[in-house]
Amino acid sequence: MTARNVLVTGGNRGIGKSIAQAMAAAGHNVVITTRSGDAPEGMQSVQGDVTDTASVDAAFTAAEALFGGPVEVVVANAGITKDGLLMRMSDADFDAVLDTNLAGSFRCARRASAGMIKKRFGRLIFISSVVGLYGGPGQTNYSASKSGLVGLARSITRELGGRGITANVVAPGFIETDMTAELPEDRQKAYKAAIPAGRFATPDEVAAAVLFLASDEAAYISGAVIPVDGGLGMGH
Ligand code: NDP
User: Ketoreductase domain spans which residues (predicted)?
Assistant: First the structure.
């Protein structure tokens, strides 16, 4: 295995933390971004807000200093929700979700691209959601931001595919996080009944897909949408 320099946005908690831990356990050099700059014990972190181009630039520059070289793998994981029905969705809530989830991922990919082109190696991994292609009531902003990542990854693939750079989307379904744990039991039961696997995923199951996409063995996979959803969204 080749140890890579991996940057995980929003790696301080939830799915991003599992991805960062799995990457480190596999022997990669890992830096996470957090908005506060505070990291869980044992993790290297840099401060960064993906809605701010200058902050993204500073986070990459700080990460490159810690690595002593360019960022080779970007996991664009930072994401937010601001759910609401279409009729009542405010411009501010629509824009905020697009700005973080889609434009934030674009800003990170753009900042990483020069170093990756020079190195003739790069892995851009965008954390989307089953909702991106399946849709979700009350989630027009979130779903649009997550499906936008597919166009982003596929256009990057066409632009940079000849330079040893891959760009892929991982689309998790329901994951056991604080968010899903808070769902009332009857809602959890109903969701699980709709998932062919009959259960939610662990964050580690998302991390395993990301780890593979970052590997040398995944060099010929690009522009793909990898579902980690127990079959919930198949066909989409
Ligand atoms: P959490 O809410 O637990 O964590 C979100 C992370 O994103 C935090 O680290 C947060 O940082 C960071 N973040 C938010 N806004 C910004 C910003 N402007 N700049 C930098 N970092 C930011 O999320 P999850 O772990 O549940 O989700 C991670 C990703 O997976 C998201 O993209 C989400 O959409 C996606 N996903 C989650 C699913 C689930 O079931 N949980 C299902 C499908 C997809 P801070 O600590 O500073 O707030």
Answer: 4-178
129 Cβ below 6 A of ligand 1? yes
- Measured in Å, residue 78 CA sits from the centre of ligand 1 at 4
Q: Are 169 and 153 in contact (CB under 8 A)?
A: yes
**How does DSSP assign 40-103, residue by residue?**
-TT-EEEE--TT-HHHHHHHHHHHHHHHTS---EEEE---------GGG--HHHHHHHIIIIII
Give, for all 236 residues of the chain, the pLDDT tens digit: 899 999 999 999 999 999 999 999 999 999 999 999 888 999 999 999 999 999 999 999 999 999 999 999 999 999 999 999 999 999 999 999 999 999 999 999 999 999 999 999 999 999 999 999 999 999 999 999 999 999 999 999 999 999 999 999 999 999 998 778 888 899 889 989 999 999 999 999 999 999 999 999 999 999 999 999 999 999 76
Asked whether 174 lines ligand 1 (CB < 6 A), one says yes
Question: What is the set of domains in the chain, with CATH numbers?
Answer: 5-226 (3.40.50.720)
- Active site includes 142? yes
Asked whether 129 and 226 are in contact (CB, 8 A), the reply is no
What interface predicted TM-score (ipTM) does this complex get?
Answer: 0.99
Cβ(82) – ligand 1 distance below 6 Å: no
